[in-house]
Amino acid sequence: MVHSHDILKRYRTLIAAIGVGVACAPLAGESSGNDPMPPAWRAILSDGGLSPEPESLGPYLAQFAPAEEERERIAKLLDRFSDEEFGTREEALAVLLETEVVPHDLLAAKLFGDDPEAAWRARKVAQRASRPDPVLHFAVLRVIAHKRMQGLTAPLIGSAQSFAGLPHLDDALDYALARTTMPGMVKREMLTASMPTPCRIVALQAFARTRGKAVLPQVRELLTVDDDELNAAAVIAATALGQRDVLPTLAASLMSHDRNTRIRSIYVLRKATQQHFGYSVDAGESERESAAKRWRDWLDKRGEVVKLKPTPVRAPLLLGRTLVAFRADNRVVEYDSRGLAVWRANVTTPVGVSADLTGRRAVASYEGRSAFVYDADGEIIQIVRLGGRPFSARLISGGRVLVTDTSERRVYEYLPNGRRAWSHYSRSRPMDARRMPTGNTLVAAADNRNDVVERNSKNSVVWKLSDLKSPRAVQRLASGNTLVAEAQAGTVTEYTPAKKVAWRISQLPRPSDCQRLPDGNTLIATQTGAYEVTKEGKVVWSVRGRDITAVCRY
After folding, report:
1. What is the mean pLDDT of residues 153-181?
2. 521 and 439 in one domain?
3. Which of 267, 289, 317 is the last residue of a domain?
4. Are both 289 and 378 inside the same structural domain?
């Protein structure tokens, strides 16, 4: 049985336009404000004309929090996208294309509305190649967190409206607030209806984190407002604060017509209670009702006495689909949250798969000496021809793809137009490569050296993990730790920046891929199947097959 996680559907078109992929993760190593700042962050700030000081970063953040009057002006211009006069629609588009910052929440209303032309014009605004720069913004947030800068709580919360829905920036913003916000810094006014919804959600999370149960009156008030996103955030916060009485509300929401609401509800229920009951957000109504009833019955009996597990004040998001590469069968299959196959592709010896929140998929074909990129409808939109045999193909920002060529011992970056933008030579066979928001690249290489190396844009080594046993896949986690699948050792191991073992699962039949999920579970591809395991090693999802070489949940 497949257990689904969270979905980020509302903003996926916006994410495609801005060009930020799902594979992004923070740089290694969390530290105190007294530790040296990683050079990559300082360089990115310098290129953006900023210095790592509050006097520079405060005004930078402020520009992404338009005043109420400016938001009203932008909203009126967006409304003109649906005007009867073509000239009015064109004039509004021209003005918005020149506007410095257009909040994402306002754009989303048009992107996902019922007017196709208005949605097209909104995409044009979202796709403009100028500011804001997600890479620069990520570096700013990480520097603020690293140095524990005080006095930036208000502009940090205000900036949420301009970057809402970009997963790694949401994470970085949440982390910056967690590291810098003290009790009293979050004002009650930040929760009022005059604030944009993304800002109210971020303020609620920071408020709950710093004030604890003192914020419950505000949380309960937000449970009743006419805003599904805000309601969901309030329910999550209430659960994080140990409020059992919202559990039946969550159980009732499992039958919501809104898929996002169902996803959020089941995420929190499972996280808080460690129960499952076979619920799937994508099942038919009768099947969902049966599972929801099992939840209600269990809560009636155990809801008042069960010890709730800690839950975060914010829920991470995924689409809930899983790509699996069956190398021996020359096929790639995508499963939905019910475990139903919803897409297939015949590919010669598929060895690597990845996907992003727009629905794009990338597949590396070992014997085919190629990498294929598919759009959300499953049509091939790009073919990368290689001189050797690839082992991974990772989608990265801007519609690009990062491919490892094990024969030529190179990692290549290709643009959507097929042009090669970057390459790196590896002395060992590069099996996997990940591009991080800072621009650094993480490469797992087997044979001669058997290591994982992180290099900056100047090809300098900034972090290295040696003496591994045939590393096949690598992932940098939000904690700064690094997850590595070692085929010869039969392990998937989480290493700290200090290269200590933080977690490990052993006795696996030649694992070749791994992915840490937002809820803490881990996806693993092996010779006998693909598995999702908890931190305790319990299998909660699986697909059997011969020589499964890659798996990706997105």
Report:
1. 82
2. yes
3. 317
4. no
Q: What are phi and psi of 392, to 5 degrees?
A: -145, 155
Q: What is the arithmetic mean of pLDDT over 1-23?
A: 33
Domain holding 239, by residue range, is 187-317
Number of independent structural domains in the chain: 3
For residues 398 and 23, the answer to whether their CB atoms sit within 8 Å is: no
The CATH number that applies at residue 433 is 2.120.10.30
DSSP string, 130-190: SS--HHHHHHHHHHHHHHT--S-HHHHHHTHHHHTT-HHHHHHHHHHHHHH--TTSS-GGG
Question: From CA 252, how far away is CA 250, in angstroms rounded?
Answer: 5
Q: Would the pTM of this model clear 0.85, i.e. be above it?
A: no
Question: What element of type H or E holds 445?
Answer: strand 441-446
Alpha-carbon dihedral of residues 154, 157, 162, 163, nearest 10 degrees?
A: 140
Judge whether 246 and 235 are in contact, CB under 8 Å.
Answer: yes
Residues 346, 235 share a domain: no
Question: What is the total residue count of the chain?
Answer: 554
> Position of tokens 């149960």?
213
pLDDT digits (tens, 9 = 90+) for 508-536: 999 999 999 877 889 999 999 999 998 88
Q: What is the DSSP letter of 3?
A: P
Residue 1, C-beta contacts closer than 8 angstroms, at least 6 positions apart:
278, 280, 339, 541
Judged against a pLDDT cut of 90, whether residue 401 lies above it is answered with yes
Q: Hey, CA dihedral for 374, 380, 381, 387, is it positive or negative?
A: positive
Model pLDDT for residues 291-328, shown as the tens digit of each residue: 999 999 999 999 888 888 877 777 655 667 899 999 99
Same domain, 499 and 410: yes
